[in-house]
Specification:
Strand content: under 5%
GO molecular function, one term: voltage-gated potassium channel activity
Number of domains: 3
Radius of gyration: 26 Å
Strand order of the largest sheet: 1-2
Structural class: mainly alpha
InterPro entries: Ion_trans_dom (IPR005821), K_chnl_volt-dep_EAG/ELK/ERG (IPR003938), KAT/AKT (IPR045319)
Keywords: Ion channel, Ion transport, Membrane, Potassium, Potassium channel, Potassium transport, Transmembrane, Transmembrane helix, Transport, Voltage-gated channel
Organism: Tetracentron sinense (Spur-leaf)
Pfam family, one: Ion_trans
Length: about 375
């Protein structure tokens, strides 16, 4: 009975998540690549590496940025499409861009792991150079107050189009789901379904905002030549749609996007002008790819053949084995980190050496 309680506790223990500790992971990397045990470069403190270098596994600030990245990813299309009629209390949320600007500065001090050597890099010069060559430009452009620049430059639509750069932040949401998929404390099927639903909702949300934006590109005198301006649902007509309640306009646009994606439209909403026809052709072509992606992922969930799911099952079995044999905390951490290292490295050392001649293989082992 006591063993079962311990086993259940270990499976839900925070310290037993598959991320493992950075120190033990680096220790295994040093062994994997033949580095000395006394290598001072691998002796890294828990929270900081060297002179003000931030632990990439820190959760507090990462969670804050993740939440604001969700907001930014969904609000950016809304801000672009419904700019001419967005409620003031939503426009005021533009001020949160300062949060992402702070994150841009902090990224110059976040340690990273080299993808080739799997060694943790905490040299500030290397960190800054890597970030400057990578996503720094897009992250910085995403912090610009494009709406203010749009008004200052005579309301040029090209300037407002740069607001789409902020969608680059959606990669943080993707990274979050990637970590959730590897965490054995969270049901894998639940995580994948939430991810697929999020992808579907985000695509239809973005399409809805673009549909409405296309309708506002024509002057009010020609609004009858747009999909929403010519729309009649029952006894309700969308004449002068710019004066209709914001949420009614958004829900109508979202309905148009969903029925177009599912190709179950009843003909009550349809493209009217050339611009709308062109976008719908592109949108439906994209939906074919999206549908294949969703169906493929659902099939993989049923078959249970994904690499991540096999890794989770192996990790759960490994934790049960260590509980039964009452292994110490240090050896447990090293074993889990080694399994994580094999999963992330995308190759198995033994399988690669199998294709090498025995004489050469003996030299490599030595």
């Amino acid at each position: 009975m006591g063993g079962e309680i311990q086993e259940e506790f270990e499976l839900n223990e925070v310290d037993d998540n598959i991320n493992g500790s950075v120190g033990s992971r680096l220790f295994l990397v040093s062994r994997e690549f033949g580095l000395g045990k006394n290598n001072s470069a691998l002796r890294i403190p828990k929270d900081c590496y060297g002179d003000f270098v931030i632990n990439p596994n820190g959760r507090c600030w990462a969670n804050i940025i993740f939440l604001w990245s969700i907001y930014s990813s969904f609000f950016t299309p809304l801000e672009f499409g419904f700019f001419r009629g967005l409620p003031d209390h939503l426009l005021n949320l533009e001020t949160v861009q300062i949060v992402f600007f702070v994150d841009v500065i902090l990224q110059f001090f976040v340690a990273y792991r080299d993808l080739h050597t799997y060694k943790m890099v905490y040299n500030r010069k290397h960190i800054a150079l890597r970030y400057a060559k990578g996503s720094f430009a897009l992250d910085l452009l995403g912090c610009f107050p494009w709406d203010a620049l749009y008004k200052a430059t005579g309301r040029r639509e090209v300037i407002r189009s740069f607001i789409w750069i902020r969608l680059y932040r959606a990669r943080k949401v993707k990274d979050f789901f990637h970590k959730m998929e590897k965490d054995i404390r969270i049901n894998y099927l639940f995580t994948r379904i939430v991810k697929l639903i999020t992808v579907e909702l985000y695509c239809t949300h973005t399409a809805a905002c673009i549909f409405y934006y296309l309708a506002t590109t024509l002057p009010p005198a020609n609004e009858g030549y747009t999909w929403i301006g010519s729309l009649t649902l029952g006894d309700y007509k969308y004449n002068n749609f710019r004066e209709i309640d914001f949420w009614r306009r958004y829900i109508t646009s979202l309905y148009f996007a969903i029925v177009t994606m599912a190709t179950v439209g009843y003909g009550d909403i349809h493209a009217v002008n050339i611009g709308e026809m062109i976008f719908i052709m592109i949108y439906i072509s994209f939906d074919m790819i999206l549908g294949a992606y969703l169906i493929g992922n659902m099939t993989a969930l049923i078959v249970k053949g994904s690499k991540t799911e096999r890794f989770r099952d192996k990790m759960a079995d490994l934790i049960k084995y260590m509980n039964r044999n009452k292994l110490g905390k240090d050896i447990r951490s090293q074993i889990k980190s080694h399994l994580m290292l094999q999963y992330e490295s995308t190759y198995a050392k033994a399988s690669i050496l199998e294709d090498i001649p025995v004489a050469v293989r003996s030299k490599v082992v030595i």
